[in-house]
């Protein structure tokens, strides 16, 4: 059994496979989200990520469902590359996320964020704390 198969089996209830909706929201058992009020989504893909095809399919599913989504690709990087603070691309991604959130929040009336990137509180110091990037993204999404 490959390592990834073990992770799937540990995560999913017994007897279910990787196409279960909890593991593969855009897979063959995907729910129709076309009528849902779904936020704009940024999908980041590392070219050396073993899950890159899943991420691209998720992006395509969002677009086919009529949702606004942007695809950011880093062809020479691995899964979770942003957790490595010394990679210049990790810092670059933080800035792209910063701009994405600013752009999205500027389109929402009475948004909790102003349109100024400087007010989004994603500091350049985050590059030294790459391991906390996921937490910061979650916090931004929660506040948005």
Q: What is the compact description of this entry?
A:
The protein has 144 residues and is mainly alpha-helical. It has 4 helices and 2 strands, in the order H-E-H-E-H-H.
Overall helicity: 25-40%
Round the mean pLDDT to the nearest integer and report it: 78
Main structural class: mainly alpha
Number of helices: 4
- The helix/strand order is HEHEHH
Largest sheet entry: 2 strands, parallel
From the alpha-carbon coordinates, what is the Rg to the nearest angstrom?
17 Å
Content of β-strand: 5-15%
List the strand order in the largest sheet: 1-2
Given the C-alpha coordinates, what overall shape results? flat
Q: What is the terminal-to-terminal distance?
A: 41 Å
**Regions with little confidence, pLDDT below 50 for 5+ residues:** 113-144
- Number of extended strands: 2
Keywords:
mainly alpha, two-stranded parallel ribbon, 4 helices, 36% helix, flat
Task: Explain the layout of strands and helices.
Layout: H1 3-11, E1 41-46, H2 52-64, E2 69-74, H3 88-106, H4 133-143
Structure description:
The protein has a two-stranded parallel ribbon with strand order 1-2. It starts with a helix and ends with a helix. The chain is built from four helices and two strands; from the N terminus they run H-E-H-E-H-H. It has 144 residues and is mainly α. The longest helix has 19 residues, at 88-106. The relative contact order is 0.11. It has helices at 3-11, 52-64, 88-106, 133-143, and strands at 41-46, 69-74.
């Amino acid at each position: 059994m490959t390592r990834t198969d073990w992770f799937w089996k540990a995560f999913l209830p017994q007897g279910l496979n990787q196409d279960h909706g909890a593991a593969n929201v855009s897979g063959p058992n995907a729910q129709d989200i076309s009528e849902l009020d779904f936020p704009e989504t940024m999908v980041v893909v590392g070219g050396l990520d073993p899950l890159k095809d899943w991420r691209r399919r998720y992006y395509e599913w969002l677009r086919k469902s009529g949702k606004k989504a942007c695809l950011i690709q880093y062809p020479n990087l691995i899964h979770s590359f942003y957790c490595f603070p010394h990679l210049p691309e990790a810092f670059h991604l933080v800035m792209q996320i910063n701009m994405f959130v600013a752009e999205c929040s500027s389109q929402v009336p009475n948004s909790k964020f102003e349109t100024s990137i400087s007010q989004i509180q994603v500091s350049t110091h985050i590059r030294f704390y790459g391991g906390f990037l996921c937490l910061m993204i979650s916090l931004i999404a929660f506040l948005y």
